[in-house]
UniProtKB/TrEMBL annotation:
GO terms for biological process: myelination. Residues 21-157 form the MARVEL domain. Belongs to the MAL family. It is a multi-pass membrane protein. GO terms for molecular function: structural constituent of myelin sheath. Signal peptide: none annotated. It holds the Pfam family MARVEL. Keywords: Lipoprotein, Membrane, Transmembrane, Transmembrane helix. InterPro entries: MAL, Marvel, MARVEL-CKLF_proteins. This is Myelin and lymphocyte protein. The keyword Flavoprotein does not apply. One of its GO terms (cellular component) is membrane. It comes from Sander lucioperca (Pike-perch). It is found in: Membrane.
Amino acid sequence: GENFIFKSIFFSLSLPVSSPSPLSPPPPLQVFGGLVWMLVASAELVVFPNPLGWVMFVSVFCFVVTTLWFFIFLCGANQSGIWPSLDVGYHFVAVVFYLSASVILAYVTLLRATIQSLQGTSDGLKIYRLDIAAVVMSYVATLLYFIHAIFSAIRWKRS
């Protein structure tokens, strides 16, 4: 009833509660991860060797795995003893992946700022703004995965 909804809301925000919820993987991770994916995909390719392939891999991989993780928890298939450790492991890997992708994305955005200042086109400015939004969303997704990894580790330690 009401207690389940309250706990689900707090788990979706990656805040700890007294007992595990079937909605443990937080939907905000999917939202911000999906935003990174869409913003990077909407920008044009760069003229130098393109490191955005890693950024796209990370955002798509984490989006798909987190969605699968969400459905596993939603169906209650996570009742065996190995799931808490898998939860911690996956979210720490996601943090490392997203942090590396965020740094790469910020670097590419900085390079595009230099190119934009030399060209001065309105299309270049639009792409640069999309890149800035993607960098912000990428760091937010990194932070959310980190918070979830910490709370998963606490839950794993208690089990």
